[in-house]
């Protein structure tokens, strides 16, 4: 870009004082100078807000009396942001010095609404980074799908940047609280005709769910929010195609939970029932999302995988083969189905 637009960097924090020196220190060391740092303290009890105010006086500290989750916390930060572009960084993330400089260059292309960094998560096998992943048609993460280093369907909320003009005042639906809100943002941008990309040169190092893993309702939010995304974003005819497989998968997940984590089964079933209990609100949100649509599900599914699970063992190959046959039969033209069609 010829000029340096203001970038607002939002860090949401909940009792993560021990992480903030590394995180905010990496932002203070950025080579991109036209920036502001916003720390949203999500009702912490460890003195995080006061510590940041003293240790990083250049940061804008936004205090919340309660924990609004990742979605609500970032929205709160966005309301205070002044930038033309907004970047999000997890409090357990450490950005390379040229992270912002690399990220902002991606927006020279006007169709790009969201860009994500190349995030190296502690403990993740090296082969994970050889290819970018995507989601399957049920909303689960699938590893190593795309050969192109820039290609992705969704941007991880761990380290992303978005164009405010495209996204609007707030990036997330606050009802999501934790998990899959970044998928909500990305899916919405694709429907609106924008693009979501990865910037492989923009690097962030990540500890991995240092805050979210402590939350007792992780399983609930993960499952509920996957369901919400499917119900909000797919066209009606696509929903009819995936519902049989979705019922099969949810049943299998419940049976596995009953065996491995009986106490978590109640919360899992509550996640399943959430859309029915809140059907009026769901319909209102769905109408709003679909009203923005300029891209059909054919183009959306072409960025998704038909694989059901990650892995290369016998069971994984069998399940993924079954899923691929289902997609071919029912007309879900995912990445793998399109590749097979091109070869034949």
TrEMBL record:
A single MF term (Gene Ontology): glycosyltransferase activity
Its pathway? Cell wall biogenesis; cell wall polysaccharide biosynthesis
Q: Does the keyword Glycosyltransferase apply?
A: yes
Superkingdom: Bacteria
State the signal peptide span.
Answer: none
| CDD domains, A to Z | GT_2_like_c
Which InterPro entries does the entry mention? Glyco_trans_2-like, Nucleotide-diphossugar_trans
Q: Which UniProt keywords apply?
A: Glycosyltransferase, Transferase
Boundaries of every Glycosyltransferase 2-like domain copy: 8-167
Q: Does the keyword Transmembrane helix apply?
A: no
Among SUPFAM superfamilies, the record links this protein to:
Nucleotide-diphospho-sugar transferases
Q: Which family, according to UniProt?
A: Belongs to the glycosyltransferase 2 family.
PANTHER family the record matches: GALACTOFURANOSYLTRANSFERASE GLFT2, RHAMNOSYLTRANSFERASE WBBL
Tell me the protein's name: Glycosyltransferase
- In which organism is this protein found? Desulfofundulus thermobenzoicus
